[in-house]
Amino acid sequence: KRVGISSTKFTSDEVEAFRNEEFVIDLGEFLSSQYEVYGSVMFNGRKLSTMMFFEAVDDKFVDVETDEWHFEGIGSSIPMIIPRNYLNLYNFGFSQTQGLPQITEALIKSVELDIRLSGNGYRDNLPARVVGFSDRLNTILVPETFMNWASTLYADADARKQPSRLIVEVDN
Predict the structure, then answer these.
(1) Torsions phi, psi of 79, nearest 5?
(2) Contacts of 146 (CB under 8 A, 6+ apart)
(3) pLDDT class for 49, splitting at 50, 70, 90?
(4) Can you spell out the DSSP letters for 60-124?
(5) Measured between alpha carbons, how far is 77 from 54 in angstroms, rounded to an integer?
(6) CA distance linking residue 106 with residue 97, whole number of Å
(7) Cβ atoms of residues 24 and 170 within 8 Å
(8) Digit-coded pLDDT (tens) for 94-145
(9) Quick check: pTM over 0.70?
């Protein structure tokens, strides 16, 4: 075993033990993309691109209400919810150092992103859009329906079901 490196996954026994604690009202599991996610967008004449990750959690834990929070299969756009602080980091840090303009929530919601997914011998490009901004969840969220579909295709079967993080509603 390497120093400082250990599993970041919860076993089903660990999740169940935590769920049964008396202070836990409700518990949800974050599922992480176990495949490559690469996103790009043309912005102000420049192509911005980066490696990414997706996570999904049961809708009852999502703090953004939108009618666009659903995935209808290949060919449809992937809806994403990002942390509002990501936009703040871009506007008040990155954009200023790169000579790029600041952007509004409305503008970023109107932009289509190109997402390349790969793994398990498959590689596809899908459109995506930011449909909301979370003040509570510090991750790039996609609907569980999308995560289940993508994991079936792009992730190894062994890596699909173990959660990487938990979200917990407690009694105080």
Answers:
(1) -80, 140
(2) 54, 56, 71, 78, 79
(3) very high
(4) GG-----TT----STTSPEEEEEEHHHHHHIIIIIHHHHTPPP--HHHHHHPPEEEEEEETTEEE
(5) 14
(6) 22
(7) yes
(8) 988 988 889 899 999 999 999 999 999 999 999 999 999 999 999 999 999 9
(9) yes
